[in-house]
Design goal:
It is built from four helices and twelve strands. By secondary structure, the protein is α+β, with helices and mostly antiparallel strands.
Amino acid sequence: MNHNRNNSKRPRILFIILIMICLGLIAASVSGRNAGSSRGVVSLILRPMQSGINTLGGFVSSASEKKKTENSLESENENLQNQVEELQAQVTSLQQNITDYNELLKLTGLTEKYPGYKMTGARIIGKDPGNWYSTFTINKGSRDGIKKDMNVVAEKGLVGIVTQVGLTSSVVRSIIDDTSSVSAMISKNYDNCVVEGDLTLLNKGLLSVSMISDNTSVVDGDEVVTSYVSDKYLPGILIGYISNIQADDTKLSYHADLTPVVDFQHLSTVMVIKTLKSDLDTEQQSTDQSESETQG
């Protein structure tokens, strides 16, 4: 036990002796006695210490520079990563715009098909759950001139009608919705009928056609369009083609299935017709009145 204590004291004693020697040499240097030799001894003793301090200082400085370099590289890497993410977002946006442009390009044929109607393209930005676009939201609203009851069409024909309008978006109810009912007619003879959404036919991608007169000459494949008597839908817009014609229980009319020309599972862009049926009717009434006054 005592041997261990003595061993632990030795470093301290040696340290104290070295301090005393250093102090004595420094005092001798200050007093001027043996100045040259004292300075040499002091220099000899302090040189390793100075060297160690310089080495330590260099290490600290090197470590500090290394840390600064690492921080700089981390900051630069973070900036580059942000730039990469921003560029990726721009590429994605451009790809979406190109896709939308191509889709809208396909829809431009509608302006030639219905030249009397002013139209604007819109992108679908939301929809009800499920595979079918029975109700969906577009990225155009009152700020873009959209109004309630404006007709909505796609590449080949009728999609639905605007039911709600916000500042920058609007809600569209498509003709496959089970609450939808469209006054229609068979294009070859202008005989009226009604096209409705039907939940039992929806999974087949079909609509229901009813109120077909028993005097109507109708066969599978006949074209159905919107009628002139509809209070909301503009006339002459293609809806689809008739199939599976059957007589009603009363035998006074027929009902049938209808295959719509629009793919209601894969919609992404649509065209909104900015002419309202009510405005069209008002214009027609004004024209008729003017002609009547002229003739009178």
